[in-house]
Amino acid sequence: MADVNFIVDGKQLTAPAGTLLIEACKSAGIEIPAFCYYPGLSLQAACRMCVVRIEKMPKLQTACTTPVAEGMVVQTETPEIAQARKATLQLLLGNHPLDCPVCDAGGECELQDMTFKYGAADSFYAEPKNHREEQKWSPVVYFDRPRCILCYRCVRMCGEGMDVFALGIQNRGSSSVIAPNVPAQMSPDDLPHVDCEQCGMCIDACPVGALTSGTYRYKTRPWEMNHVATVCTHCGDGCKTTLGVRSTSDGSEIVRGDNRDKSGINGDFLCNKGRYAFDFANHEGRITQPLVRQTNGEFKSVSWEVALDLVGKKFRELRDTRGGKSIGVIGGNRLTNEEAYLLQKFARTVLGTNNIDHHRTADYVSFAQALAGQTNRTASLRDTLTAPSVLIVGGDPTIQAPGTAWNLRTNVRLNRAKLYIANSEPIKLRRQAKAFVQLSPFGYSALTSYLAGDDASASSAASDATGLSAFRDVVKSEENLLILIGSELRGADLRKLIAFGLTLPGAKFALLSDYANSRGAADMGLLPDMLPGYNPVGSSSPLATEYTANTTSGSLAPGLDMLEIFDAAGKGDLSALYVVNSNPVARYGVDAAALKNTFVVVQEMFLTETAALADVILPAANLYEKAGSVTNSYGDLQQVKKAGDRAGVRTDFEMIVRIADKMGTNMRALVPFGKGLRADMGQTRGAQSGEADRHSIWLTAQNLEPRLSPFDPLAILDEIQRLVPGYNILRLQLLSGNDQHLSPAAPAELVQITTRRDLVLPANDSLFTSGTLGRYSTMLSDLQHNESLRPSSLLTQIQTAAD
Amino acid sequence: MPALVSHPDEVKVISRRFGMGAADIEKYIELDGYKAVQQAIANGPAWIIDTMKASGLRGRGGAGFPTGMKWSFVPKVSEKPKYVLVNGDESEPGTCKDHVIFLHDPHAVIEGTMIAGLAIGSKLGFIYLRGEYRYLLKIVEKAVADAYAKGFLGKNIFGTGVDFDIITQTGAGAYEVGEESALMESLEGKRGVPRIKPPFPAVVGLYGGPTVINNAETIANAPHILLMGGEAYAKLGTERNGGTRLFGISGHVERPGVYELPMGYSLRKAIYEVAGGIKDGKKLKAVVPGGASCPVLTADEIDVGLDFDQMGKAGTMLGSGGIVVLDETVSIVEFALRTIAFYQHESCGWCIPCREGTDWIKKTLTRVYNGGGSRKDVDNVQYLAENMMGRTFCPLGDAAAMPTLGFVKKFRKEFEEYIDGNRAGTPLITVEQLVGAGH
Amino acid sequence: MSTVANSIFSPELAARFDHLVTIYPLRRSALVPMLLYAQDELGYVSDAAVAEIAERIEILELDVRNVLSYYSMLRTKPAGKYNVQVCTNISCMLRGGYEILDHCKKTLGVGHKETAPDGVFSLEEVECIGACCWAPAMQINYDFHDDLTPEKVDVLFQMYRDGQGKDVK
Ligand SMILES: Cc1cc2nc3c(=O)[nH]c(=O)nc-3n(C[C@H](O)[C@H](O)[C@H](O)COP(=O)(O)O)c2cc1C
Ligand code: SF4
Ligand code: SF4
Ligand code: SF4
Ligand code: FES
Ligand code: FES
Questions:
Q1: Which residues of chain A make contact with B171, given a CB cutoff of 8 A?
Q2: Does the structure show a pLDDT above 60 at A726?
Q3: Chain A residues with beta carbon closer than 8 angstroms to that of C28
Q4: CATH 1.10.3470.10 given to domain A3-77
Q5: What is the mean pLDDT of residues B324-333?
Q6: The CATH number of the domain covering residues in A364-512
Q7: pLDDT in tens, A196-225
Q8: Reported ipTM exceeds the 0.90 cut
Q9: If you measure from the C-alpha of residue A268 to the centroid of ligand 2, how many angstroms do you get, rounded to a whole number?
Q10: How much is the pLDDT for A801?
Q11: Touching A: which chains, 3+ CB pairs < 8 A?
Q12: pLDDT per position as a tens digit, A323-345
């Protein structure tokens, strides 16, 4: 839109016509107070805090609803305005409990801030305040009515933002109250509850302490925490989250997950898992000492030295006696890229095996192959917020990738993006869709053929032939279409769908997977037939060449995949199995007996089904307790920072390095640490003690990492950057906590399409589960239990709520 | 059934058919009914709007906006259907004039709705009555059904090829729903919370379509105006205040009732002559001249003409035409409390100044009334009311603040004496009662 | 048209509702009148009524409750067979509205928003009901009674007790 000129507080400003005055002022650094206004949600004009004086208008006007206009002259801070705001605050405080010293929001409360600013703390009311008991609406959402200032942010957040509509406004006048969707009289315990997705977005939006979180309430005060910006460990969206950390006797504890950094990849959003499910770290079943199985079958705690010695010795012996090909390695979906890369490098160059795999939740190999040689065809999560049109084939983002679903809803709401959905289930996002085709069960393959022009497949794709045909027509007419693909599409189907999409001008693709670093695991080559960056094993890529040079035994042929590894074990052909942060025994229903002649080493937090079969268990740190990087489903790379800490555990990175060391490996070949270091470490500045230390701090602050030790993940990142196609990382971008989009596609000249085994096994997580890890989150268990109390979930009812 | 009154000074336009059985369609037709609408069809929208403009008719709902002008604001072409909405929510304390129209002359409302529809190019009108008016709803429903039966409503009305439908609707107890945009919300099945303006209803109204909303009396005037001509109607009143209007005179007068008086008629005469003077020979203390929202006039301020402009100059408003008369025995403290209690109960709660302001004024005045007040409380009440004025989301906040300010400013001495004398009112108004009719 | 199976309402009312949702440009417009008519039949708006109305209008029960709780004529608890609503607003107050209310309280033995044990009468103090010129006024089941005196009230109550009261529902 055309720009208009206007004057605010004497400053000449310009903004596109139609911009709300409050936003235009914000861009110019003029902050106008607001309780009810929330960017992106509908306008309310209810709190009257944002009043300003506009020339020629008889009354004060609300900046949150007034669009800027040519020639407008505005005052935002005059005595008259200050008085209006002060009076409004006085009215609010009249009934406000003023329990700031114990309130969770104390220190981060918009009401507190405003009261301070406008000096409205004096109350001249003699009447008693209305007191109401706090209500527990769910394990994670608590409501303290007297603190509520009725800004309706929560109501809009839940309805407009989440499309859940679990919160309403009831009664009227001074009896008005925010009410959840399960009224007391309809609830087994006679208390009101909220039946919803439990995302906690309402809490996030609440400007005061009226809505508080079950995990955080009354635990600490905001200023007693350190805040660490990192990436959520749960689904494949990779939301940026800020963890509030407090020190404890044996490390540091995460007490809060929130989304202060609204400029992250997830914008305003965090789902329940990102917000609450960090408590697994403190689960009572957490293993904090290495365990070694004794001859009587029992585990015994041993020192790290003993455990690592044993593992190193045993791996070396088995490699040397039975050959690297007798060893299997399984990596996890929640390792950092650095760890995943190191693990496969360790497998391939130290253990001498390509028998390496991970639990695959999407077919990234076919995805990379289908996009080989293309540029600008992969989408970032950020594109879901801006793409003019989006096609979703398969998947159910609302449940599997809540951040994606949030962005899509926002995009539809604010930008009128067109959403087209083809799914064999009536997924919830269809409520925002311009067109939805319900596919026949297993109709995806037929759909891809149909889209590609094979009209004969129509009947196998969907029963509604006209709908399907209209759907294809409208999708084909779209430019710059974003195509989101669920894990249902694999192999040939996936390639066919992408081939179809490539015929549309400007179309971009993303393949959705299930865990924080599922994409990274594939990109980093936790695959028996693919080296990092989808370089086929045995090919002549620089990476393959460099690996072969370092390799002890034949890594030129693809190794065993996940199922073959266990088959080999069953046949007695697997001498050792090294499992890093994965639970294949439960996931693939492996028969315990299969592993009885295999030396099993498991790096884990808990005694999982897999760990229970181990000979050695090494207690591992989780993603919130380490540093590195992860790549989300879309290929967006982000930095992971250490937030929590637990005495006794080590990062997977460190354990791999130490095992390699115990095996007598040339460490500099495995982790290129200390290389090319030119930094002056302070020696030249005299012998003053502490000087070197200070210098190292300076280097860190300048993002010049010293990489002094083989335990430094950044050392391996250098190698990833050098060798893995597509990982041409911008360091500054990464280290300053920003996301960057990478498109690792298979090197076109090396793609050989072979019929690979379909090993994709979707996680099938619900909103309240998160693989094996989620089982150890008390909060997620509580939420599952909470959900089970109301089997006839109101969530199903909302399918008719649109209006 | 409410008694009809009359007085020689009355000029009967809208009340012409009152008491004549005009709720019956045959009778209505006999008394020139449904002639105006046929003229309107024949002469077209421009003629209707010109006639309405010439009549000087100003909205009878309270704000007094010129009706012809309002109708002319509706865009000629619109993608969305246009609507006519008749505001029969009549809930302003002291007001019962629409009550009488629905009772005695429902067809005039129907015919007026059709005329408004023709003027703006709408094919659907709504007549919204407050929920308490159930028996009136039945009368209006019957009248609508009779009009359909005659072919006056529906497809091809009067065989002219024009279509027009009317839906009758009822509220369920909420003063705020009388506010035009809240009324639209209510009619769309929502809470009666007003909408952000702009856009104004004439552009984006009911169901997002351009909408003309008028008070029932305003609408019922339209057929009369078309029949008698705009200028003739205008001449009955004063400059810029055309015609006559229904005044409901209630409270301490000898002959309370709804009278039709020309605009500009003297307030003093209305009280002392038309309504027969103060009841039981007592002395006049004050008048709330246009429904509870209007600032009070003291006994010496009643030499003023009853039109929008003169009342405005006198520092009050013509409002809904509900004149409430207070004799010397009335305690202003009690009256102010009862007034604010109403607004506290009826505030929709959307915005902070009104929701909290009415609540605190009520609480403070309750304490004062019950004998626990201090002089500071009067200042506080004034401070609260002053800080509500012009700062709320809709005019209900002003409607609560204006009378409050009137009482504490004009009768400050009485408040102070009340407080100083440690008086406590006969506990007529208990807190329990005031907490509410509603919740 | 979604006619509801197993309606909790009488066949007449159910049929009326079936029709009501079809006449408006938007189905939801039928909500407020439906709540009122449901209350007229059931005596109050029960949870079951909320559920059925939500289904008929195709909105959430929460939405129905949001609206229901806004309007002061709607109630979620039963009232007496005859609900006496006495206006005490300004015009009525000036002409004895509070005396009428007190008289009702005494005669019926109940307070504001209470129902007599026999369930025949319930009492409510209400805001202006649009009968100011005929004050003091009250409504009993929508029927207006004006120019009241305590004696008139006694006669009225007897009439209702005798089953002679008008029911305008
Ligand atoms: C709080 C409030 C209550 C109102 N109540 C009514 C009412 O009951 N009846 C009415 O006609 N107008 C009422 N109005 C005025 C309407 O908003 C609107 O101005 C009027 O219906 C327009 O019609 P008119 O131009 O014919 O007067 C009210 C306004 C406010 C702010
Ligand atoms: S709970 Fe919080 S967000 Fe919701 S209305 Fe109250 S103050 Fe606003
Ligand atoms: S959407 Fe995914 S990444 Fe984002 S907070 Fe939820 S689980 Fe974590
Ligand atoms: S002024 Fe505010 S709270 Fe009062 S009725 Fe209007 S919108 Fe509602
Ligand atoms: S922010 Fe503008 S009124 Fe609340
Ligand atoms: S004041 Fe009682 S009916 Fe209006």
A1: none
A2: yes
A3: 803
A4: no
A5: 96
A6: 3.40.228.10
A7: 999 999 999 999 999 999 887 777 777 778
A8: yes
A9: 17
A10: 37
A11: B, C
A12: 999 999 999 999 999 999 999 99
CA of B161 to the centre of ligand 2 (A): 54
Let me know how long chain A is.
Answer: 803
**Which three-class secondary structure state does DSSP give residue A355?**
coil
Instruction: Check whether A678 has a pLDDT greater than 50.
Output: no
Report pLDDT for A551. 62
pLDDT of residue A707: 63
How far does C35 lie from chain A, in Å, by closest CA?
15
Domains located in chain C, CATH noted: 11-70 (1.10.10), 82-161 (3.40.30.10)
- Among residues 43-72 of chain C, which lie with CB inside 8 Å of chain A? 47, 58-63, 65-66, 69-70
Q: Closest approach of chain B CAs to the CA of C140, in angstroms?
A: 10
Domains of chain B: 25-235 (3.40.50.11540), 244-327 (3.10.20.600), 332-438 (1.20.1440.230)
Range A125-282: architecture per CATH: 2-Layer Sandwich (3.30)
Percent of chain A exceeding pLDDT 70 equals 93
Of all residues in chain B, the one with the smallest CA distance to C68 is B191
pLDDT in tens, A144-179: 999 999 999 999 999 999 999 999 999 999 999 999
Say yes or no: CB of residue C93 within 6 Å of ligand 6.
no
Q: Find chain C residues with C-beta within 8 A of B256's C-beta.
A: 132-135
Token code pair at residue B251? 């409270």
Question: Which CATH code of 3.40.470.10, 3.30.1330.10, 2.40.170.20, 3.40.50.740 fits the domain covering A291-359+532-666+720-740?
Answer: 3.40.50.740
3-state secondary structure chain B: CCCCCCCCCCCCCCCCCCCCCCCCHHHHHHCCCCCHHHHHHHHCHHHHHHHHHHHCCECCCCCCCEHHHHHHCCCCCCCCCCEEEEEECCCCCCCCHHHHHHHHCHHHHHHHHHHHHHHHCCCEEEEEECCCCHHHHHHHHHHHHHHHHCCCCEEEECCCCEEEEEEEEECCCCHHHHCHHHHHHHHCCCCCCCCCCCCCCCCCCHHHCCEEEEEHHHHHHHHHHHHHCHHHHHHHCECCECCEEEEEEEECECCCEEEEEECCCEHHHHHHHHCCCEHHHCCEEEEEECECCCCCEEHHHCCCECCHHHHHHCCCCCCCCEEEEEECCCCHHHHHHHHHHHHHHHCCCCCHHHHHHHHHHHHHHHHHHCCCCCHHHHHHHHHHHHHHCCCCCCCHHHHHHHHHHHHHHHCHHHHHHHHHCCCCCCCCCCHHHHHCCCC
User: How many angstroms does the Cα of residue B169 sit away from the middle of ligand 6?
Assistant: 22
Cross-chain Cβ contact A174/B357 below 8 Å: no
Q: What is the pLDDT of residue A97?
A: 84
Q: What digits encode the pLDDT tens for the residues B56-80? A: 999 999 999 999 999 999 999 999 9
Averaged confidence pLDDT in chain B:
95
CA terminus-to-terminus distance, chain A: 29
Compute the average pLDDT of residues A726-735.
Answer: 90
Q: Is the pLDDT of residue A533 over 60?
A: yes
**Does residue A665 carry a pLDDT above 50?**
yes
Q: Which residue from A92, A142, A143, A151 has its CB within 8 A of the most atoms of ligand 2, so it is best to mutate?
A: A151
Distance B237 CA to ligand 6 centre (A): 28
Query: Hunting for tokens 């319930």 — which residue is that?
Result: C122
User: Is residue A795's pLDDT more than 60?
Assistant: no
Name the strand (E) or helix (H) holding A629.
strand A628-631
Looking at per-residue pLDDT, the higher value among A341 and A690 belongs to A341
pLDDT score of A701 more than 80: no
For ligand 2, mutation pick of A143, A178, A204 (most atoms within 8 Å of CB): A178
What amino acid occupies position A25? C
